[in-house]
Amino acid sequence: MDWLPFNKVKPYTNAFVRQGNQLLLGYKKRGFGKGLYNGFGGKVDQGETFADAATRELQEEAGITAKLEHRGTLLFMSPEITEAAHIEVFYAETFEGTITESDEMRPEWFAIPSTDEKHREIIQKAKQVDAVSGLRFIPYDEMWEDDALWLPAFLSGHHFIGRADFGADGRLQKWWFALKS
Ligand SMILES: COc1nc(N)nc2c1ncn2[C@H]1C[C@H](O)[C@@H](COP(=O)(O)OP(=O)(O)OP(=O)(O)O)O1
C-alpha cells in the first residue's frame, strides 16, 4: 500500500495523565473515535497554540487542569478523510480539580504494565486485571490500533514521532514510528 495522499492537515491534541502506576483514559461517547478509549483532546481552535488547546480540552473533557508536557507528534490518515490529522500528544503526572465525566468522555483509571514484556502480553491477551490495584490494564483492544505501537515507549519517558495510515476497514495499514530518549 502506498502512503495515502493529503493536501491539508487539521491540528488536534491528545493528553495523557498518569498517577503512579495508573493512567487516566476517557471512553469516547460521541464523534471521531466513538467507542474507543483515548487520552483527552480535540481540535485546535483558531488562534490557539497546541498547548493552549490541550489544556482547554483536558478541562472540558475531564474537568481537570494539568501542567502538560509535550511528548509526541502523530500524523494520521485514512481514506475517509481528506485532511491528515496532526496530533500533538501531551503528558502530565499531576493534576488539579476533580475528574468529571463530560458529554464527550467518560474518564476511567487503568493499570500501567510495569515492563515492556507485560505491555506485549496485554496487547495480545486483552482484558487482564492488575492484581495489585484491582484495575484493568490499559485496554489496547479498545483504543486506536496505532496506540499500542507508541504508548508503551511514551509511558517509559520517550518522545515519539510517527505516522499511521488506516484503511477503509478502519484497520491500520501502514505506519512508521521513531523514538527520542
Ligand atoms: C489514529 O490514531 C489516533 N490515536 C490517538 N491516540 N488519538 C487519536 C488518533 N486519531 C485521532 N485521535 C484523537 C485526536 C483528538 O484527541 C481526538 C479527536 O478529536 P475530536 O474530533 O473529538 O475533537 P473535538 O474538538 O473534541 O470534537 P467536538 O468538535 O465534537 O467537540 O482523537
UniProtKB/TrEMBL annotation:
Cofactor(s) demanded: Mg(2+)
Main localization, broad class: nucleus
Gene Ontology BP terms: DNA protection
MF annotations from Gene Ontology: 8-oxo-7,8-dihydroguanosine triphosphate pyrophosphatase activity; dATP diphosphatase activity; metal ion binding
Pfam name, any one: NUDIX
GO cellular component: cytoplasm; nucleus
Coiled coil residues, start to end: none
Catalytic activity field: 2-oxo-dATP + H2O = 2-oxo-dAMP + diphosphate + H(+); 8-oxo-dGTP + H2O = 8-oxo-dGMP + diphosphate + H(+); O(6)-methyl-dGTP + H2O = O(6)-methyl-dGMP + diphosphate + H(+); 2-oxo-ATP + H2O = 2-oxo-AMP + diphosphate + H(+)
Top-level enzyme category: hydrolase
Entry superkingdom: Eukaryota
Keyword terms, alphabetized: Hydrolase, Magnesium, Metal-binding, Nucleus
InterPro entries named in the record: 8ODP, NUDIX_hydrolase-like_dom_sf, NUDIX_hydrolase_CS, NUDIX_hydrolase_dom
Known EC number: 3.6.1.56
Ranges for domain Nudix hydrolase: 8-160
Subcellular localization: Nucleus
Protein function: Oxidized purine nucleoside triphosphate hydrolase which is a prominent sanitizer of the oxidized nucleotide pool. Catalyzes the hydrolysis of 2-oxo-dATP (2-hydroxy-dATP) into 2-oxo-dAMP. Also has a significant hydrolase activity toward 2-oxo-ATP, 8-oxo-dGTP and 8-oxo-dATP. Through the hydrolysis of oxidized purine nucleoside triphosphates, prevents their incorporation into DNA and the subsequent transversions A:T to C:G and G:C to T:A. Also catalyzes the hydrolysis of methylated purine nucleoside triphosphate preventing their integration into DNA.
PANTHER family the record matches: 7,8-DIHYDRO-8-OXOGUANINE TRIPHOSPHATASE (PTHR43758), OXIDIZED PURINE NUCLEOSIDE TRIPHOSPHATE HYDROLASE (PTHR43758:SF2)
Subunit composition and interactions: Monomer.
Family assignment from sequence similarity: Belongs to the Nudix hydrolase family.
Protein name from the UniProt record: Oxidized purine nucleoside triphosphate hydrolase
Species name: Daedalea quercina L-15889
